[in-house]
Amino acid sequence: MKNPDFNEVLLLKAKPNKVFPDWMTVRIRFLRYRVAVACASCGRKSKHHYTLLMSFKAAHFGKHQFKLVCEPQVHLPLTPVCRDHPLEPMMPHQKKK
After folding, report:
1. How far apart are CA 82 and CA 38, in angstroms?
2. Which residues are bridge partners to 38 per DSSP?
3. Which of 11, 13, 14, 29 is the most buried (most CB within 10 A)?
């Protein structure tokens, strides 16, 4: 008899990428679930998500394809977000330019 509440997640580290700084590569994790879960930003269910090991905001493309809109909600570390949303880490010690 299967338990519908049972789910298993595999946490995978990101490989080094020249586009992202090293501190970002260290803090990003890819999540692979056994059972599909909802994205914290849009609610779309998937088995493949990603997250940060720090608080972050998720973004999406607005009505215009080239304008990136950041959501006001701050997500906790390890919150699953689908790969359609770029993540903006919350860095309280840095001033915005």
Report:
1. 8
2. 45
3. 29
